[in-house]
Amino acid sequence: MNVSELLQDAFDRVQEECHQAVSGLSREQLALRPAPDANSIAWLIWHLTRVQDDHVSEVAGRAQTWTAGGWVRRFELPFGEEATGYAQSSEEVGQMEADGEVLLGYLDATHAATKAFLATVRDGDLDRVVDRNWTPAVTLGVRLISVISDDLQHVGQAAYVRGLLGA
What we know:
Elements: H1 3-22, H2 27-31, H3 41-60, H4 65-68, H5 71-75, H6 90-94, H7 100-118, E1 129-131, E2 138-139, H8 140-165
Antiparallel strand pairs: 1-2
């Protein structure tokens, strides 16, 4: 297994877990917040997909699936198209409503774009600096692992909320 295959496998696992967390739930179940300031499954899956789309598209040098694929219009959210969920207020989190088909459609489109980029990644590419706003500067390898880590944390949270639903 090479680095490209390893990274693709990690992102495949995120996609699989997201499908398990979302599949078969109603729009109302997806929007349920188990506590007043908690995140819903819909928000968690949207957010992890937005972060993946934002971060991977940047290092891949391509447009985000969110805008280029027209997903921003399908979601019809009451906040700006640049929103990824980062630093959103509890009120904004509560405004997230989407059905499973739209959530998983955006996830799958973003996943396909991510895999297409990862198919081009070679071992030597991982040391390429992609963000100098941090000390030390962030490399491609660190950025991709960061996205995987964030995605897995959020899909785990979504699975937990699903468990609270008894679904």
